[in-house]
Amino acid sequence: MYEGAVQDLIDELGRLPGVGPKSAQRIAFFLLQADLVDATRLAEAITRVKQTVRFCSRCFNIAEAEQCRVCRDPRRDDTVLCVVEEARDVVAIERTREYRGRYHVLGGAISPIDGIGPDELHITELLHRLDREPVEEVIIATNPNVEGEATASFLSRQLDGRAVRVTRLASGLPVGGDLDYADEVTLSRAFVGRQDLRGRGTREVR
Amino acid sequence: MLLRRLGLTDVRSYDHATLEFAPGVTVLIGPNAQGKTNLLEAINRAATGGSHRVASDAPLVRLGAEVGAIRAELETDASRRRTLELEVGSGRRTRTRVDGQDVRRAAEALGVLRVVLFAPEDVAIVRGDPGERRRFLDDLLSQRRPAYAAARAEYDRALRQRNQLLKQARGLSPRARSAASSTLEVWTEQLVTYGTQVVAARVAAVRALAAPTDRAYRDLADRPEAIGLAYRCSAGPLPDDGGAVPAPAEVAAALRGALLEVEDDERARGMTLVGPHRDDLDLTIGALPARGYASHGEVWSLALALKLASYEVLAEVGDRPIVLLDDVFAELDTTRRQRLAAACARFDQVLVTAAVEEDVPLTGARVEVTVEDGVSRLRPRPAGEAGAA
Predict the structure, then answer these.
(1) Cβ–Cβ below 8 Å for A112 and B185
(2) Hey, are the CB atoms on A149 and B193 less than 8 Å from each other?
(3) In chain B, where does DSSP find H-type helix?
(4) What is the CA B312 to chain-centroid distance, rounded?
(5) CA–CA distance, B46 with B97 (Å, rounded to integer)
C-alpha cells in the first residue's frame, strides 16, 4: 500500500478496463514523474469528455452537440439506415468511406446473461425514427456472434410488415488475403454464403 | 501422420523432457504413477483441446510452475514437417502456435495433430451417462471439422442465453412475460440454427461410424454379434431417408416443432428441454442395449471398437491419426490382446503405455518412464535390448 493520493490513483486506474494492478501501478508512477503540464492535460481531457460529450439525440452515436457529426451532415443519404451495436462500430464503418447513409446505435446486443433485453437497447427509438424518416433500407450491422445474430433476428421481426428493405451484412473471406490463411470457421461461413458468379449484379454502393 | 518429437516443459510430472519417436509402435513402460499417462494426456491435449482425465488445464501444469509447454514436431502423410506448440496454465488464455505462427483461435489448431486415444475411462462411452456419448461424438467431429467445434460452442452460448431468459421469465407477471416471449422466440431461432448444425453433423458421424464399429467389434469379441448405432434425438425421431443424412431444413423443423411442444414445461422449469444437449447415442449388441445388458468384456470390446472406428472416420478426410492406447492391454485377456495387437498393425504410429511389458504383444521401440528426484524421466531402450517379451 502507498500513501493516500498515490494509492487512490492506483485504485482508480485499476478500475479501467484492461488495466490490472501491475499496470495501474506503472501508470501511476509514470504520472508521478511526468510534468505537471502533461498530467493536467490528461486530467482536463477526462473532465472535458465527461462535460461536453454526450449521446446523439437522434442516433445515440457519440456527439459533442445535440446531434452527432453524421446526423448533422446534410449530404448523408436519409433513405439508408445502418444499425450497429456500439458507437465504435460507426467509426469502423466510417473508415471505409463507402457508406453514405445514416446510423442508429443500439447501445449493445440482446444478452439475457448480462441482463440486456430489448428494452435496454434503443430499439423503440429506432422504430420511431422509421415512422418519421424516409428510410427505404435498414442495414443490420450487429456483430456476427451469437448475441449479434439474435439481435439482428429480433430487429428483423420488429420490422416485419414495414415497407422497408431489411438487409444484413455478409460474413465471409477477408479481402486481399490468401484463401489458405483464412481460419476454418470464416472459410466455412464463406462457403455457406457463396454467391452465383453468373448473373450477379454489382450492387450500387450509397 | 507421425509424431516425430515431443517436448514437455513443466507439464504434470515432467520438468523438461524430450522424446524422439519412430514410425510404428512405441511402448512406454514403467510402474504406476511415473508419468506414462501424463505423456499421452499431453499429446491428446495438444490434438483435441482437452484432456481425457480433467476438465481444466490447471492440473496439467507441474506443481509450482505457472505455465506448462507442449511442443510436438509432426510429419504429415505428405511428408511435410509441422510444429504445434501450446502454453497452458490456469486462468490464462492458452497460447497456441502452429508452424511457429500464433493462431487467433484455439479451434484453428484442432486437427493439426490428429489422434485417437483409447483409455480405461472410455468404457464410460458404453456404460456411462448420455453426456459421455455426446462428448465422444463431439470430440470426434471437432477433430474432423474445425467448424464443428465453433458451431458447438455457439450452440452452448445460445443455450445458456435461452436458459437464462427462461429462468428470468419464471418470476415475471403475465404481462411482462409476454414481452419476454418475443425475445424468447429469437433465442429459440438461434438455438435451432446452431442446434441443426450440431445434430446434422452428429447424425452423419453416427452413420459413418456404424459399419466400421461393427467390423472392429467382430474382430475383437468372442461372440461376433451385430452392433447397432442410432442417434437418439430429443426432438423426436428424424426422418430416415434410407441411410442418407437428413436435410438441415428437416432437422430444423423437427427441433422447432419439439421446442414448441414443450414450451409450457420449459417456462415452468426455467430451462431448455429439447436440443442436442439432451440427445443420446443408442448402442446395441445383438438385440440388446449395450448399457445395462453387456458383460464387462463386451463393454470393453465395444468401447474399443468405437475408437477403432473413429480412426476410420478421421482417416477418411485428411491425415491418418496417431493411435494412443493408455493402459489398455492390462485390462484385456490374452485372446483380446492378440486381436488388438493385430488391429494395431495397420496404424502408422501407435503409442502404448503399460506397467508390465509382457502384457503388450507388440514389437517396436521401448521407453522406460521413471520418477527421479520428483520428476519423470524418459529413457529409450536401445534397439536389440529387448525385454523379456
Answers:
(1) no
(2) yes
(3) 36-48, 123-127, 130-144, 146-170, 174-220, 248-261, 263-269, 290-293, 296-316, 334-344
(4) 14
(5) 11
CB contact, 8 Å: B194 with chain A? yes
CA distance B103 to chain A (A): 9
- Furthest CA-CA distance within chain A: 72
pLDDT in tens, A116-153: 999 999 999 999 999 999 999 999 999 999 999 999 99
| C-alpha span between B325 and B304 (Å, rounded) | 10
CA of A194 vs chain B CAs: smallest distance (Å): 16
- A140 CB neighbours in chain B (<8 A) are none
Inter-chain touch B161–A188, beta carbons under 8 Å: no
pLDDT at A83 over 70: yes
Return d(Cα B286, Cα B299) in angstroms, integer. Answer: 13
> Is a pLDDT exceeding 90 seen at residue B109?
no
Phi, psi angle pair for B157, to nearest 5°? -65, -50
Express as a percent the part of chain B with pLDDT over 90.
67
Could you tell me which chain A residue has the CA closest to the CA of B156?
A: A146
Minimum distance, in Å, between the CA of residue B151 and any CA atom of chain A: 9
Helix (H) or strand (E) holding A186: helix A184-192
Residues in Cβ contact with B364 at an 8 Å cutoff, skipping those fewer than 6 apart = B22, B24, B25, B26, B27, B350
- Taking the C-alpha atoms of residue B107 and residue A183, their distance in angstroms, rounded to an integer, is 9
Which of A113, A150, A184 lies nearest to residue B186, judging by beta carbons?
A: A150
Residue B389: what pLDDT?
41
pLDDT of residue B243: 61
pLDDT at residue B172, rounded to an integer: 72
Q: Scan residues 80-139 of A and list those with Cβ closer than 8 Å to B.
A: 110-113, 117-119
Compute the distance between CA of residue A175 and CA of residue A146 in angstroms, rounded to an integer: 24
Q: Which of A17, A164, A146, A161 is nearest to A83 (CA)?
A: A164
Domains, chain A? 4-52 (1.10.8.420), 75-196 (3.40.1360.10)
Q: Which of A146, A151, A192 to mutate to test the interface with B (most CBs of B within 10 A)?
A: A146
Say yes or no: B181 contacts chain A, CB-CB below 8 A.
no
